[in-house]
Amino acid sequence: MEREGMTVLVAGGTGTAGTAHVEALVGAGYRVKATIRPGKDTATLVRMGAEPVEVDLRHPEAAVRALEGVNALVVAVLGRGPDGVRDEEFVTRNLVDGARAAGVFRLVYTSVYLADEPTGVPHFEVKGRVEDYVRKSGLRHTFLRPATFMEGLNAPWIRASVEERGVLASPIALETPISYVSAADVARFAVLALEDEALEGATLNLGGPEAVTYTDLLSVMSELLGHRVEYQQIPLKQVEESFGPDIAAMVRYFNTTGFVVDAAPVAHRFPVPLTSVRAFLEKSGWGER
Known about the structure:
CATH architecture of the domain at 7-147 and 182-207 and 262-274: 3-Layer(aba) Sandwich
Distance between the termini: 44 Å
Number of helices: 12
Shape: globular
CATH class of the domain at 7-147 and 182-207 and 262-274: Alpha Beta
Order of helices and strands: EHEHEHEHEHEEHEEHEHEHHHH
Largest sheet: 7 strands, parallel
Structural class: alpha/beta
Strand order of the largest sheet: 3-2-1-4-5-6-10
Strand content: 15-25%
CATH superfamily of the domain at 7-147 and 182-207 and 262-274: NAD(P)-binding Rossmann-like Domain
Number of strands: 11
CATH topology of the domain at 7-147 and 182-207 and 262-274: Rossmann fold
């Protein structure tokens, strides 16, 4: 896809992945629109150089209107409300249908690693169903399947506890290996997907340069902060009570199998250097206080 004169709509433009997609696409020279729920603050999107599109994507006709005049669609939506999985599937199907109706040239879908596997994690498996829907739609597409976003380590309740109390609290077991990936890296692959015809129909499993355990995280955080960081495991029952059974299912799956992506196939094929956890934390200002 030629960048000049092309308009890309980022659906879910204010989430972790969506914000990264907006930044990467604007930086690559595309005209970028980004959806935002009605009534939400649009200042961040405007500051990033995107055109906010206030829309309730639960309404099919609204999705079609949002996609009028758009050449490519990058989807990074998450479900909302008491049944987030059902909401996510409904909204994303609306976007796919709207893209077909509006004659959108290309679709890049931000899925999740192992979306097509029986993990028992509802908000993973819903993305597998959406992938099937996209395939059957006939739209030219690429699936990005990131593992765990590094940005989660900057969540206020995690970072404040580590920096102020020296405690990394998590339900993830100490020796569970996880492939953390930077959302910015994932977004660079979205740009590639729009420009490299070889990526049409491709599925890219995306993780960082190495799998990391909480033991590894404690070591890196302690070094950057200059003081010892201790680990505190949060009981799974507390996770389920606070965040619901879906998140508890994910934690249970991680602690049983890990969540490790072999980054080598993608890293060897494409010129996108993968960010390490240490580099991400340093860039995020850990240790500057």
